[in-house]
From TrEMBL:
Protein name: Transport permease protein
Family: Belongs to the ABC-2 integral membrane protein family.
Keyword check for Cell inner membrane: no
Keywords: Antibiotic resistance, Cell membrane, Membrane, Transmembrane, Transmembrane helix, Transport
All residue ranges annotated as the ABC transmembrane type-2 domain in the record: 26-254
Signal sequence residues: none
Organism: Mumia zhuanghuii
Transmembrane is among the record's keywords: yes
One of the GO biological process terms: response to antibiotic
Topology term for the membrane: Multi-pass membrane protein
Top-level lineage group: Bacteria
GO molecular function, one term: ABC-type transporter activity
Subcellular location as annotated: Cell membrane; Membrane
GO cellular component, one term: ATP-binding cassette (ABC) transporter complex
């Protein structure tokens, strides 16, 4: 199919997926509940006992970037879930019999995930402001933050497509996200990495969450981002490219065997 066919097909299918979410707002509510609960727990229960060693003001200022990544990790589980249910319901076979661009089916799910996760992020940020989050970030800083979060969402969403296409059960399709949700705990999201034992510190400083969290935190505080931004972008782009290639290969195998 040509690009001119791909765009309207993707737009139409994305609209279909978004309508499903609009009719079931509990999807977004469920997505934000865990991150908001974690934020409230750490700010009001543990926050007073945690010394970040940084001049970030209230602990919620230090904590929020990691909570935002947890929100995305929680949200992309629904991409795998929706893909799995579409496969089980036979909707994919129905789409294959129609004159539409085949890749538009996957892109519709990916773009739906992007929109839904951005809505969830806005809700979490709003709650953070209510409980004391403050930032000196300007418009460009905010655009940079949302750009990083959008890229991270795309990377994890394409990662979610793989179990959505290959899982044998619905639990297998959505369960893969649990390690991603808890990955921020072994990073600079909650405490500085230099407070950790050496082996844990090495892992924390060499996994994708830490540079992403550090970059967002610096942007919120209008501080220099340094090399963290480039490392964060490299991780996001690397995960996105690898996940996209593997997801498309899984999709081709799936439709070939249908």
């Amino acid at each position: 199919m040509s690009a001119t066919q791909f765009l309207p097909d993707t737009t139409t299918l994305t609209g279909r997926s978004l309508r499903h979410i609009a009719r079931s707002p509990d999807t977004i509510i469920t997505t934000v509940l865990t991150p908001i609960a974690m934020m409230l727990l750490f700010v009001f229960v543990f926050g007073g006992a945690i010394d970040t060693g940084q001049d970030t003001g209230s602990y919620v200022n230090y904590l929020l970037p990691g909570i935002l990544l947890m929100t995305i990790a929680s949200g992309i589980a629904y991409t795998a879930y929706r893909l799995f249910t579409d496969l089980q319901s036979g909707i994919f076979e129905r789409f294959q019999s129609m004159p539409i661009a085949r890749s538009s089916v996957l892109w519709a799910h990916v773009l739906t995930s992007l929109v839904a996760n951005l809505v969830s992020l806005v809700v979490v940020i709003a709650v953070a402001f209510v409980i004391g989050f403050r930032t000196s970030a300007n418009v460009l800083d905010w655009l940079a933050v949302f750009g990083i979060l959008a890229l991270f969402t795309l990377a994890l969403t394409w990662l979610a497509v793989i179990p959505g296409l290959t899982a044998k059960t619905i639990d297998g399709a959505s369960g893969f996200s649990y390690p991603l949700i808890f990955l921020p705990f072994i990073s600079s999201a909650f405490v500085p990495t230099d407070s950790m034992p050496a082996p844990v510190q090495w892992f924390a400083e060499n996994q994708p969450v830490t540079p992403i969290v550090n970059s967002i935190r610096a942007l919120f505080a209008e501080q220099p981002v340094g090399n963290d931004l480039w490392v964060a972008l490299a991780w996001c782009v690397g995960i996105l490219v690898v996940a996209y290639v593997l997801a498309m290969a899984a999709y081709r195998r799936k439709i070939a065997s249908a």
